[in-house]
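Q: You know discrete backbone vocabularies at least as well as I do. I have my own habits and do not want them to colour yours. No explanation is needed for now; the record alone will do.
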Amino acid sequence: MQTFEELTDQGPFGAGRVTLGFAFDLFFLPPDVVKGVFSQVKSRGVRTITTHGSVSLGNVVQSLASLDLLDESIIISHGGEIRSADAKLIKRAGAHISSTPSSELQMAMGRPYCFDASFIDGGVAGDSIGLQDNASLGVDCHTITGGSILTEARIGLQNARNTFGEYHMKQGKIPRTVPDSLSVEAAFNLATVKGAEATNMSKDVGRIAEGFKADLVIFDALSPSMVAAAQHDPVAAIILHSTPADIDTVIIDGVIRKRNGKLLPVMVDAAARNVTDEATLDWVTVARRIISSRARMQTEIDKMDFEHISDALFKVFHIDESRLVDVK
């Protein structure tokens, strides 16, 4: 918390575009301690607090609600085991879910909560969810997935369409259409304005409109991935066909950060120059330092006893090990 306060004193960063959020998973602590942490964080102007929705960590929605801490600042990563009663609490409080389809689908977290029609069967929990209005997308950890929000939108959409179609297929039916909640426009909104809403920034970013930050991503409509598709339906081309390589230009707050498909050098904040010893950084320099850092970390990782570390982490986070199963 001391480090957190020091950082809030120094921020915001990046010419005002980077502000601190807060992450918290320790709901097993005494209620007064948890409330005290949240009070301290909010007194520092933090607008976004995230917590993992995870089966192993218990029902965080109920924990937050019981402590009177569930409000519009809360983003629940993944969701966990949400029932309809939990969904009602989330919507009533104006809180949000951040779905990360790539990691959720490969890590036994259940289907992503970002598309309502994916739960036409009532979901694993056995009752309706309906959280798309309070959903957004994230990329989770770059160590296990890619870093593209649009890729997450595509994977989440296709998984939801498959679940929707399978529900009808098992009844011997074939749906002629998909609902609006499974449209490419709905996926595009999750990747743009819904993320802005979740982070309480929808008055500044997420739309191309007068008074908003000049944040623009410009695609090459003639790239091999997008040609013809973009001329037919630009939104469908972005959601169903594009890759990050198709992004020609990125403008952030009116400043060009990527041009002709290449990241441009950036000015280093004064506070960070004692770390980099450079006034500007280009991508090649950053990439080389990442590779060097990875090598140092791997050397330390190779020394670790992961069985011992796992046991310690289970105890620290009060994870119920009786729910773990060995499968072949």
